[in-house]
Amino acid sequence: MEDTYQGLKVMVIDDSKTIRRTAETLLKKVGCDVVTASDGFEALSKIADNQPDIIFIDIMMPRLDGYQTTALIKNNKRFRKTPVVMLSSKDGLFDRARGRIVGSEQYLTKPFTKEELLSAIKDLVLD
């Protein structure tokens, strides 16, 4: 089962170092290649360089928030098919709807579990 994730490129964008490190540790344990960024601006150049298979992105970030970053990703021909999962500590209907509007495929509430991360990857990348 763990081999399933071997070599998958996963990007985690969050201004919280703790969240980035937690997700990176969980994902590397199952064999994913993980790239992290602390905000949308940093993420955009790393997305172009690394071409991730899936992107996990925090909603509330400085400079360029998760909604803006997702919209930019989804408006780029090269990356519009890359699945984006929004991460938020808020679990409101409005936040979920706004995430869908800008093009995100899924929404996870922080703190997330290893199972939730892997389930999102399985549903959006491996199926």
UniProtKB/TrEMBL annotation:
Gene3D superfamilies: 3.40.50.2300. InterPro entries: Bact_response_regulator, CheY-like_superfamily, Sig_transdc_resp-reg_receiver. Keywords: Phosphoprotein, Two-component regulatory system. GO terms for biological process: phosphorelay signal transduction system. Residues 9-125 form the Response regulatory domain. The keyword Phosphoprotein applies. PANTHER family: PROTEIN PILG, STRESS RESPONSE REGULATOR PROTEIN 1. This is Twitching motility protein PilG. It comes from hydrothermal vent metagenome.
